[in-house]
Every structure is written in structure tokens, then in C-alpha cells.
Amino acid sequence: MATTILIVEDELIAAESIARSLRKQGYIVIARINSGEKALEQVAKNIPDLILMDIHLRGELDGIETAKRIQEQYPIPIVYITAYSDTSTIERTQETNPYGYLIKPFKPQDVINAVEKALEGNRQ
């Protein structure tokens, strides 16, 4: 069974680029979402195997708060996507036990590597 991935990214071009890279590797991208609220709705409908979560999103919830709410109900591994790697942001993400980070800008292979590492870590 193919692995399903939810992309939560507020930049449409970035989300499409990530989705394209993942599809080339045989992953199923179940949706590209641009807000935390929409991500919560999507996960309730269709639980993915992995979530790529931007930290800065549209709407009231940022990616970290969205991840916390998802993890209260579902044990889904989350890899953060961010242009911000400052200490306070990284410390906030630690509360959600992330499976990795993609720091913008990144290459398509970086996405694949992060996804594979997170999925492998989740199987153990």
C-alpha cells in the first residue's frame, strides 16, 4: 500500500513543487492545505501516514499549534517546513516531537530524504 502524505504549506508554488517530488517517488499526496484549520479538517477525514507542516500558515493556527492538536488525537509523524530556524521557533516545535525539519530553500531530494527518514523512524 502506498504511503499517503498531507502537505500543509501556505505557499502554493512550494506546495506544488513538494507534491511533484513526492509523486515522482511513488507517494500519494492526499491534499495540499494552506491553513491549520483546513489541515485539522483534512486529517479528520483522511488520516495520512505523514504530514509535512509549514510553521507559518494562513488562518488563526500556526503549524506548531496545528501539529499539537493533530497529535492529541492521531500518532502521525510530522516534518516541519520553515524558513525560520531561530532557537525560539525550534524550541516550540520540540513540544510536538517532530520527525525532522526542512529549512527553506531546499532541494527536491531534501524532501525525499526527510520523508524517508521520518517514515523509517516511525516504523521503529
Automatic annotation (TrEMBL):
Gene Ontology terms describing biological process: phosphorelay signal transduction system
Domain spans labelled Response regulatory: 4-119
Keyword Isomerase: no
Residues modified to 4-aspartylphosphate: 54
Top-rank taxon: Bacteria
Pfam families associated with the record: Response_reg
Coiled coil: none
Keyword vocabulary terms for this entry: Phosphoprotein
PANTHER family: RESPONSE REGULATORY DOMAIN-CONTAINING PROTEIN, STRESS RESPONSE REGULATOR PROTEIN 1
Protein name: Response regulatory domain-containing protein
Organism in which the protein naturally occurs: Planktothrix serta PCC 8927
Lineage: Bacteria, Bacillati, Cyanobacteriota, Cyanophyceae, Oscillatoriophycideae
